[in-house]
Amino acid sequence: MTMARNPLSIAQCVGCGCTDIDACCDTKGSDSCYWLRVDRTLGKGVCSWCTEYVVGWDAGEHDKRTRIGPSDV
Questions:
Q1: If 33 and its partner were Cys, which of 41, 47, 54, 61 is the partner (CB 3.0–4.6 Å)?
Q2: How far apart are the C-alpha atoms of 56 and 64, rounded to whole Å?
Q3: How is residue 29 annotated by DSSP?
């Protein structure tokens, strides 16, 4: 039996590893990242601080990081 993944599960950036609950932020904590690309099914994305990964993402090249999700938190 295959379980459906929650479309609102936590995603992790393929570049820096930040997540929905642990975003990148500047040293003052006033500016945080946001998703440029995100696939909730994969649990991966590219945050606004990792723009160099967008071209690879758009070409379908996703890294092998372990998915972060509700069972991992």
A1: 47
A2: 13
A3: S
Q: ∠ CA(55), CA(17), CA(71), 5° rounding? A: 120
d(CA 18, CA 37): 13
Question: With b meaning 16 or more CB within 10 Å and e meaning fewer, what string describes 9-38?
Answer: bbbbbbbeebbbeebbeeeeeeeebebbbb
Give the pair of three-digit tokens for residue 60: 């379908």
> Nearest CA to 54 among 45, 67, 65, 41?
45
Helix, strand, or coil (residue 42): coil
Q: Give 14-68 pLDDT, tens digit per residue.
A: 999 999 999 888 777 678 899 999 999 889 999 999 999 999 999 988 765 544 5
DSSP code of residue 31: -
